[in-house]
UniProtKB/TrEMBL annotation:
Stretches of the chain forming a coiled coil according to its record: 104-131
Origin superkingdom: Eukaryota
Family (UniProt): Belongs to the GLI C2H2-type zinc-finger protein family.
Protein's recorded name: 5680_t:CDS:1
Protein's organism: Funneliformis geosporum
Length: 160
């Protein structure tokens, strides 16, 4: 997925584009450059972050958290997105059409959509149940001409 890349060199900035073409890795004097963001991200994950290490620390040039230990590999990868500008999660909410960095933001958006749909379905279910109850009460009246006092509240004025 593509994402926008900034060209500023502020302390927490994404990698610089050289001649508007290549992305420069700014990890502790790494000389690598890349044409595609996904290649830079892969390089960071494989060559710098690694796997099964005792400590995961950010070594991005001019990072305010440089050298600080992250709680896990996943935490470091998530932190590196602030440097690379990577936003791997595509939001499915039609009104937003945006990319986001962390999966929990995506899940929160999807949760809100599901919550609204569930509320609408519950309302529709209640309406249908009321209609079924009304119909069954009418049928009971027609068959037995007998209605219990607790059921009277569910009847329309024509049935009482």
């Amino acid at each position: 997925m593509s994402s926008s890349i900034y060209t500023s060199d502020s302390p927490n900035s994404p990698p610089l584009r050289v001649n508007s073409k290549a992305l420069v890795c700014k990890w502790d004097e790494c000389p690598e450059t890349f044409m595609i963001l996904a290649d830079l991200v892969s390089h960071l994950h494989e060559d710098h972050v690694g796997r099964k290490k005792a400590n995961y620390t950010c070594e991005w040039a001019s990072c305010p958290r440089k050298g600080a230990t992250q709680t896990s590999r996943f935490a470091l990868i998530t932190h590196l997105r602030s440097h690379t500008g990577e936003k791997p999660y595509d939001c499915k909410v039609p009104a937003k059409h945006r990319y986001i960095r962390r999966e929990n933001e995506l899940l929160a958006d999807e949760y809100q959509v599901i919550k609204k749909k569930l509320k609408r379905l519950r309302t529709e279910k209640d309406i249908l149940l009321d209609a079924v109850m009304q119909q069954s009460m009418k049928s009971a009246l027609m068959k037995n001409k007998r209605v219990f006092p607790t059921d009277v509240g569910n009847l329309c004025e024509d049935c009482i």
